[in-house]
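Chapter summary example: a protein plus D-glutamic acid.
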Amino acid sequence: MDRPIGIFDSGLGGISVLKEAVHLLPNEYFIFYGDNKNSPYGIKTREQIDTCVQRVVDRLLQRNVKVLLIACNTATAASAQRLRGELTIPVIGMEPALKPAHELRHSGQILVFATPATLHMDKFRHLMELYGEGAVPVEGYGVVECIEAGQVSGEKILSVLHSIFDEHLKKKTDAIVLGCTHYPLIRQALAQVAPGIPLIDGNLGTVRQLRRVLERNGCLRPPEATGGYELHTTGDASVFLPRMRMLMELAPVTAQ
Ligand code: DGL
């Protein structure tokens, strides 16, 4: 089916998912929206997040997308259930990768690093009931703001991360879950602050789920189709589009 895939985030974080998706599904065409004007979502109420999400979803629906990928843990927790009830196209969301991290656990703790909003919503409470043994939620205050400002490395982000993690890392830690799609963009800084600790994100799992849904619905584009992507922002395009393009280069991909 020749329709595009709609993908969005509160801002730049979704680029880490888009990169993985483009890599895994090279024949598909993606339309990406970063709601940079309203970022961060993670310190807003559920109602505020839902209002922002709906505005971006409306833009993507106008482009006749065949599936919606919410490349944002916070927006998924706030709005995925409602959107699934209202839309006729499939809606794929994200959640902190607590399940795979749980399998890495020996005797130490698993730190679940995510936005305050994600960590306080019901969806996360349910996840903790299932896989939360030894898991400690860690709120990422100030981190998304740095990334949106283009500070993915250097003193500022390192000092924010040290102030969040140093106390927690006094205890044996088996893994850190990157429960916000912005965080894979600062893997290098995180590795400096928490050396040797596995950093687990849910991007590949989510993109594999996207592929499964497309296969199941018979709407994958054929192997001869030329894929691609468009980048859009609700914020200042002269500021955010160059940052998105730069991060599309830098973002790591897991799939081989
Ligand atoms: N990237 C988003 C997430 O995965 C949220 C960042 C924010 O806007 O606070 O949770």
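Key point: The chain has eleven helices and nine strands.
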